[in-house]
Amino acid sequence: MSPKNALLVAAVIAVLGMGVYLFIQVKTPPAQAGATHVASTPTPPTPTPREPSATPRPAADAAGGAEVPGSTRTTWERTPSGDAASNADPDGRKVDMKVDNLMELANKAYDAQDFDQATAIAGKVLTKDPTNVRMLRIMVSANCIGGDSTLAQQYYDKLPQFDREQMKSRCDRYGVTFKD
Q1: Integer distance in angstroms from the first to the last C-alpha of the chain?
Q2: pLDDT confidence of residue 8
Q3: pLDDT at position 62, please?
Q4: Which residue range forms the structural domain that includes residue 167?
Q5: If phi over 0 gives left and psi between -120 and 50 gives alpha, with beta otherwise, what is residue 176?
Q6: Which site in 24, 43, 44, 180 is 20 to 30 Å from 10, CA atoms measured?
Q7: What is the model's pTM?
Q8: Do residues 145 and 112 touch, judged by C-beta distance below 8 A?
Q9: Quick one: angle between helices 149-156 and 133-146, nearest 10?
Q10: Are 101 and 85 members of one domain?
Q11: Is residue 35, in this structure, part of any structural domain at all?
């Protein structure tokens, strides 16, 4: 056997050996570090309600049943007069869960290349929020892909400058150019 062939056989054996080693390492559970010192973490402050219609109540178990004794966690109960405080973002603005869900559906339809569905859903959101940049981008992009440059231009005109630049390069791929 020539030295070249012997070297090749040794390399193959080394690669196979490393493959077995890596396979075993991936299959073994990670080692648990022995804790010699447990740092105590401070309890977060109890949230204050942002909406007068939301009232705090003690936390329930995971299934939503009875109270958990000694629990310091607070949940928010819906009242007939309004929404829960959890529907407010950190700035205190109200979050419309229906619009948020519609935007997610529009994104999913766009990602699945169902552009008719994406534009239909984005159009519904834009009737409630005509300046929603996320939905305007879907309308521009989907209409560029569909070849409707007139409709794409209509939504393009409503976009902020930064988004316009991005849409120009995206729609250019589909032969759609915009007039500024």
Answers
A1: 73
A2: 93
A3: 42
A4: 97-172
A5: beta
A6: 24
A7: 0.48
A8: no
A9: 160
A10: no
A11: no
